[in-house]
Each structure stands twice: as structure tokens, then as C-alpha cells.
Specification:
Largest sheet: 6 strands, antiparallel
Structural class: alpha+beta
Order of helices and strands: HEEEHEHEEHHHHH
Shape: elongated
Strand content: 15-25%
Radius of gyration: 21 Å
């Protein structure tokens, strides 16, 4: 009798548990993508500091909706870490409000922005700054900053490089959000959503390629890192996708993390 009553209740909990797992997986992917974006702004675009702000309420001042700087690379001080930026303030807040890239050659001397964050900017010895919103389908997923410790103009090449990284990161974030929704999630073989198990064991090379792909690296970057050709990397990725039953790189990253194949 007890078993007959308890079983439906447990079954009813499964969709909620699956939804919670999907949300957590999407959060892990988002953090990985945005953290990698901050690092690549420094490594690939020649910036001294890379920052990424994530939209959310300004909990410190209970102010208007804005963002918080959650990811960084190249910083020396900590005043920019977890800094709340309301919409419209500073260069990043302006990018968030206007939804368009903007830059200044000297942040401290700029007359077109507010100067709420001069102390934090000065502590990092920053001058030139570029901000690009992560915009997809009318939704702003965040703002990426590329900052320099010198007064310099941002040329088309560097602006294009940062914008390209921002676009790639935004597509990954949008894909993760769509894939983690209840309607889009693939069922577990048992009939409920859950961590995926490879249909066959991954080879050592497949696992290596998968690990780098899950951090947002491109095929050429993975090839250079592992000393392989691009076609070989593509082949390993396709094989790993087939074994995990996923359709694209975003699903691959989520499945790998949910299954514990990458940390």
C-alpha cells in the first residue's frame, strides 16, 4: 500500500529534478563560456584586461537593473571584481543600455560617459576601453570589456576581433539556454532526463578533443594544442557527438559536463 502511494509522488518529482539539473548545467556552460571569453580577449586580442558583466539586479545598492562583473582576466587589483554596474553608468552600462559597441581612448578623460568607477579603473591603471554587448535575439546575455593600460585608439582589427569573440560566445550561450529547456532536452535512456552515457567508450583522443571543445576552443585551436590536423579534430568531435547522441558543440559541452566527462 505504501509503495503504491509513494511511487507516483517520486515520479512526479522527476521532471522538477530534471529541470533543476538542466538549469544547473546551463549555468556551468555559461560560466565556462564567459570565463573563457574574458581570457581570450587578453590572449587573442592583445588587451591588458578582459572583463565580462552578467545582467542582474544591483544587489549592493538595490538600484536599477544592470549587471555585475563576474569574470575577469589580467587584473592586478580587485576593485573591479564583482562590481555592480547599473544600466547607463560607465562605458559598460552604456553598452548595456544602448546595445551597441562603444569605446574611448582614455576612460578617465572621457566626457561622454559617467565616472562612477574611476577609482576602480585607476587602481587597475586602465585607460583605453572597449565594450561590446552580448546580444542575441533581443536578449542581452552580458557585456565584454577589452581594456588597455595605455591611451590608444581601438582600430578596426581589434574591434573586429573582440566583436567576433563576443558573437561566438553569445551563440554558445543562446544555444545552451535553448538546449536546456524542457522541450528541447533529450530524454535519458530510462525515459527521464538525466546525465547521458556514451553509447561506446570514448577513446583517449576523443576525450582530449572533447575537453578542449567544452571550454569553447575552435577546431583550429584544438588542432594546434594537440598537434593534430583540423580534419582529424573534426573527425574526433563527430565521433564523440555520435557516441553521446548530441547534435552540436553546445549540446556536446552540456552532455560532457552532465556526464562527468569533463570537470
Amino acid at each position: 500500500m505504501t509503495r503504491a502511494v509513494d511511487t507516483p509522488a517520486r515520479a512526479a518529482d522527476l521532471p522538477r529534478e530534471a529541470d533543476a539539473l538542466a538549469v544547473r548545467a546551463a549555468e556551468l556552460v555559461r560560466d565556462a563560456v564567459l570565463g573563457d571569453l574574458a581570457r581570450r580577449v587578453v590572449a587573442d586580442c592583445g588587451a591588458d584586461v578582459g572583463l565580462v558583466g552578467v545582467p542582474g539586479p544591483d544587489r549592493r545598492s538595490r538600484g536599477p537593473e544592470g549587471m555585475v562583473l563576474r569574470h575577469w582576466a589580467g587584473t592586478r587589483a580587485e576593485l573591479l571584481h564583482d562590481l555592480a554596474v547599473p544600466t547607463g553608468t560607465g562605458l559598460g552600462g552604456r553598452a548595456l543600455a544602448e546595445r551597441t559597441p562603444s569605446w574611448v581612448p582614455d576612460y578617465r578623460a572621457a566626457t561622454t560617459i559617467s565616472h562612477h568607477y574611476d577609482a576602480a579603473v585607476t587602481a587597475e591603471d586602465l585607460y583605453a576601453m572597449l565594450t561590446v554587448p552580448l546580444l542575441h535575439g533581443g536578449t542581452v546575455h552580458g557585456v565584454v570589456y577589452a581594456s588597455m593600460r595605455a591611451v590608444v585608439p581601438f582600430g578596426d582589427v581589434r574591434i573586429g576581433a573582440v566583436t567576433g569573440l563576443a558573437a561566438a560566445a553569445t551563440r554558445a550561450l543562446a544555444g545552451a539556454a535553448a538546449w536546456s529547456g524542457p522541450a528541447a532536452r533529450k530524454p535519458h535512456p530510462s525515459g527521464t532526463a538525466g546525465p547521458l552515457t556514451p553509447s561506446a567508450p570514448l577513446t583517449r583522443r576523443e576525450h582530449e578533443v572533447l575537453r578542449w571543445a567544452a571550454t569553447g576552443r575552435t577546431n583550429p585551436e584544438i588542432a594546434a594544442q594537440l598537434g593534430l590536423t583540423r580534419n582529424t579534430v573534426t573527425g574526433y568531435l563527430k565521433s564523440a557527438m555520435h557516441k553521446l547522441g548530441v547534435r552540436n558543440r553546445t549540446e556536446l559541452a552540456l552532455a560532457a559536463r552532465e556526464s562527468g566527462l569533463v570537470s
